[in-house]
Amino acid sequence: MTVANTCHWAPNPTDHLKESTSLASPTRAVPPREPRHQLVAPRTLAFRPADLLAQTRRAPAPHDTKRPVLPTTATALGAAALVKAIPQDGGDAETSRGFILEYSVHACSPRFRREVALVFPQFRTLNSTKPAPAKGGKGAAPTITETSDLYIVPVCQPTHRSLVAVGAEIEGEKDDKLINFVRWADCLRALLAARGYWADFTDPCSGYPVYSPRGASFYPDVAGCQYLLRYAVTTADGCSVLVHPRWDTSFYPATFFTTAPPNVIEAAVQQMATSQ
């Protein structure tokens, strides 16, 4: 089971109770509600893994390139290990398959930011400077502080099967979506770092940062999407599952974080999508 299906966190316990919607059936129509702090409305674009890999290689290497060393299976390990484990030469069969991904951009309110700071503790320790790119082909180390703007990018990928279901096929599809997200997020991070902005993403399987030091808490994608996008939530075997307005429970959520402003995020994502 991934953090995408867990139910341990909400920005505020009262909000969690107010926002949760118990559905008799996951296919029941749910009227959309106004998202919170949304700066860029959800947009759906197509991407090719081979293009993402090529752009990641062309971008100056981010300064903080250290990656955790973990065991090696997609579902058990998640994004941190996949950054290293996924073939990076573009030669695997999966790189020829395009995929669809929906993203939106949200400002981080002060209260929500306090929760995120438990996941990314360096918010309290780094200096808010944007140094020029370093010599030797590596980008400078973008830094953040408590006064830096922070933007949250919820990401959704449609799946062929509902995530309420269980079994080998479901787990295999989750692995595929995890690989897509890691390639997409790693490319976006590289492009934003080259522009002098901090960026990172959390592992959907654990909720912990992929590149940044771990904090005292993890980031649960379900609760985050529920709060920001105000999607309905149903329960399955005691765990919360999001209900997308178009894809119902057949989608895979994940989350990206950055100090880059919305126009810079959009330009980078468009570059990633239109290079096909």
Description:
InterPro entries: MMADHC. Residues 1-35 are annotated as: Disordered. With 276 residues, the chain is α+β, with helices and mostly antiparallel strands. It has one domain. The protein is 30% helix and 17% strand. It is built from 8 helices and 7 strands. The chain has helices spanning 13-19, 49-58, 74-77, 79-85, 110-117, 168-194, 221-229, 262-273, and strands at residues 38-47, 99-107, 151-158, 199-201, 232-236, 239-243, 251-258. The strands form 2 sheets. Strands 1-2-3-7-4 form a 5-stranded antiparallel β-sheet, with helices on both faces. A two-stranded antiparallel ribbon has the order 5-6. A hairpin with a 2-residue loop joins strand 5 and strand 6 (239-243). Helix 2 packs parallel to helix 6 (168-194). The two termini are 33 Å apart. Residues 1-27, 65-77, 90-95 and 125-136 have low confidence and may be disordered.
Which secondary structure elements does this structure contain, and how are they paired or packed?
Blueprint: H1 13-19, E1 38-47, H2 49-58, H3 74-77, H4 79-85, E2 99-107, H5 110-117, E3 151-158, H6 168-194, E4 199-201, H7 221-229, E5 232-236, E6 239-243, E7 251-258, H8 262-273
Antiparallel strand pairs: 1-2, 2-3, 3-7, 4-7, 5-6
Helix pairs in contact: 2-6, 6-8
Global morphology: globular
Distance between the termini: 33 Å
**H/E topology pattern:** HEHHHEHEHEHEEEH
Helix content: 25-40%
Low-confidence stretches: 1-27, 65-77, 90-95, 125-136
Radius of gyration: 18 Å
Strand percentage:
15-25%
Largest β sheet strand count, sense and barrel closure: 5 strands, antiparallel
